[in-house]
């Protein structure tokens, strides 16, 4: 469309003139005789132009659309044109009314016989672009010849008139989702006419065509590039309104500008027309992008992380990768995404890690923080993100611009638990107790008095002495003597230098002798200590129990727990097969050591030289030690085992032997069963044994003497020390043809048991909290605090694991059943001979004819060719001496060495 004015110059010959502004900067003129009055032959047109100098503007006229041949002479001279040629002039009334014009154009030739011009079209151009505004209300003059009607056209006319006002182009902008209005007539000449009325818009045309007429004006739904952007309404009285509420208007991005052009045409009250072009600019505004919730799932083990312990399975998964979901109605906007919170579960725990990959995706890594989930158990963690467009408008905008950042949306990751093996720990705890009484709770009573030493003890004595003291000579006498010596020495030195000079040597010697002389002293340094004599000793033990019980322990903890969770560490134990206890019945020990403890050293010192004379210490020989540990040797050592007594029976001696014995019973207890908690032991020792030699008694009855079926004897050397008989060396022999012996034995028997009743424990967590009230074998309940530093850095062990130290005590019962018992045994043997050398100081050789030289028939290794013992009575309880069960004490507290730990997510 183009800007134009259309007006009528009224006169005898009514003439319609339309001037159109062309895009190339030229003006098109279309002139038509209306025929509503007289007819005439158009010979010329005269006009004024504003805003340029017609003389110098370089104006030219070109005929168009059939008018090429009718354009005659042209004259352009600013304010000075009234004629073009002889008859083409506006002299007279027109000149008086309008004055001289800026330009004039001739049409056709004189007389209608050659041509009769009733219309003409031409283009007016200049050296610079022309504007229709140059003809706004411009003065016009027309020259007609052959004016008349029908065939009677012999008149001529000069007509004056004015152009109509120009309608000027308009432009206005409307933002997306808003509305705007512009007064199209406000800049038009005479848009509001002299009578106060507004020109009327009679048509509107755009690229689509004429706008639809509606009540009050014209309307168009504006659609650009397939986007419905809003509704354009042009009122009849010249107002343009646009509402940017089209279905697609939100698709316009920030600074996305769309333009819509149209041309409106107005009509004045006198019928003059004017057109102008209007450009509507629709400014796109940023629309806030949208982000949408996302949900996905991942297994707890599909994680990648460094685990804190080799007992944990490695985590070498990939996590889970998902896509952000966002949209932006604005065409061309590119979205990016930003994670704005850490993954958090419903309880406020921050578990796992999330990474924005920068390509529209994210990766969630469960890390080592979901191992507490049971198989199939799930835990949701959520984090938020926003979508951000590339408009750059920011978040604080002025309407109708909207934020470039979406409202936060939530990503929910469901972590699915897997079956995790518990973490198992094994250790062995050793419990020991010593010197506990076998007759009641507490320590055994040991009586061990310090007996006097019989001999001498010098104590430490000094051997330091000065033999020859050191002397120093000085004074006049020594000075004279030394001067003489010095003179002699100097003379010798001078003679030597003379000889040296012969050979070219340089000698300048001067001998100085000391002013005093000291003689060396002679002295000794040393010490002497001696302890020589007899040291008796004595001790009495009322019976003691020692125990050593290794316990194999087992603990099992969950792979991982949560803050505030209550869980259990299961425990179990079993006694190791090496568990044992020993008992020692009441016993007495006495003896005597010969002590020879000599410790002496002596050095001779002459001046500053030291000479070692001797260094003797008898305590340096580990093989030269008595029973009490002092240097020397043991003379004798006796204990309850040595307290035996044979009781003479007078005339019954050939047939009966009665031996009395101090019973000493030492036992070793072992486990009753591999998986049991009780150890037991038994032991016995004779109190009295009465042996009846039945074959001797039979020999006495049959032959009148007791040795018919066998005999024994010995000979050798013996002595007595302190009332104790000592066998130095003797030869013993015996023989039997037939041996029958009945032995009645009164003995002391002891049955012991040690039962492990309880193993109470105390668990101390790394943060210093203590758990007690449980025992080995229990499930230990642990209440994980909801907050706190569970893994303090103690000596650099802040490894994310909670260490647990467990201390265990032992509670045990000891049972002692001590009683007198009776045995009755019958021995029967055939043929026996043996001999040997015996001594209280060494074990001599012995030989047996049978079971030695000649194998026995029965293989019993009893020295008889054929022999056997028949038990008639065994351990028949006669009297209970002690039967009690009591706690045994003195156990140590055992601590686990194997690190026990659990992981808090």
What structural keywords apply?
3 helices, 60 strands, about 900 residues, about 5% helix, nine-stranded mixed β-sheet, about 55% strand
Word description of this protein:
The protein contains three helices and 60 strands. By secondary structure, the chain is mainly beta. Strands 32, 40, 41, 42, 46, 47, 48, 49, 50, 51, 54, 56, 57 and 58 form a 14-stranded antiparallel beta sheet that branches. Strands 1, 2, 3, 5, 8, 11, 13, 18 and 19 form a nine-stranded mixed beta sheet that branches.
What's the total number of strands? 60
- Helical run tally: 3
Helix-and-strand structural type: mainly beta
Return Rg in Å.
70 Å
The profile of the biggest β sheet is:
14 strands, antiparallel
Q: Which blocks of ≥5 consecutive residues have pLDDT under 50?
A: none
Distance, first to last CA: 76 Å
How much of the residues is beta strand, in percent?
A: over 45%
